[in-house]
Amino acid sequence: MSGSGKTIFSTQGEEQEKEVPALKEFLNILENGLKIDFRSNKPFFNGETPGYLELVIGSSIRWFKLLEHKTGAKLIDQESTPFLFSWITDFCEFGMVKEALPDQAKLLAFAKKRRGILLEFSKHQ
Fold first, then answer.
1. Is the dihedral of CA 33, 36, 37, 43 positive or negative?
2. Domain residues for 43?
3. pLDDT tens string for the chain (125 positions)?
4. Where does the record place the GST C-terminal domain (predicted)?
5. How far apart are CA 67 and CA 46, in angstroms?
6. In Å, what is the CA distance from 110 to each residue of 27, 66, 74, 122?
7. C-alpha 39: how far from chain center
8. Region for 4 from its dihedrals, namely left if φ exceeds 0, alpha if ψ lies in -120 to 50, beta otherwise
C-alpha cells in the first residue's frame, strides 16, 4: 500500500481527506504503467493464469476496498482506472484466488480494531 494509503488508514478528518488525491494519483500511475507494459488481451499480466506480479498487486486489493469504505471515495473503478478494474475483476474471480481472498467483513473488523490502536497510539506522540 502506498504512503497515502497508510496515512488514510491511520488518521482522521482533514489530514485523511487530503491524502485521497495522492492515492488516486498513485493508482493512475500504476494504471498507466501497467497499460504500457502489459497490453495483451489476456486476463492476466503473464497470460492466462496469475503470476508473481498478480500476487504482489493482488495482495493489496482488499485493503484498497477498505480505504474506499473509509473515505467514501471510489479509488478503483471502470471509469477512472479501467485497466486495473478489469484486471482486479479477473483476478478475484480466478478459482484459487477467489478461495484464498480474505472475507471482506472479517478484514473490515480487523482493520477497525487495528485502526483504533493506531489512532490511540498517535494521540500519545
1. positive
2. 3-123
3. 567 777 887 788 888 888 899 989 999 999 999 888 887 777 788 788 888 888 888 888 888 888 888 888 899 999 999 999 998 888 888 888 888 888 888 888 888 888 777 777 777 66
4. 1-115
5. 28
6. 24, 11, 21, 19
7. 21
8. alpha
Cell of 90: 479477473
Q: Is the full-model pTM beyond 0.90?
A: no
How many domains are there within the chain? 1
Please spell the DSSP secondary structure of the chain, one letter per residue.
--HHHHHHHH--HHHHHTTHHHHHHHHHHHHHHHHHH---SSSBTTBSS--HHHHHHHTTHHHHHHHHHHH----S-TTT-HHHHHHHHHHHHSHHHHHHSPPHHHHHHHHHHHHHHHHHHHHT-
CATH of the domain at 21: 1.20.1050.10
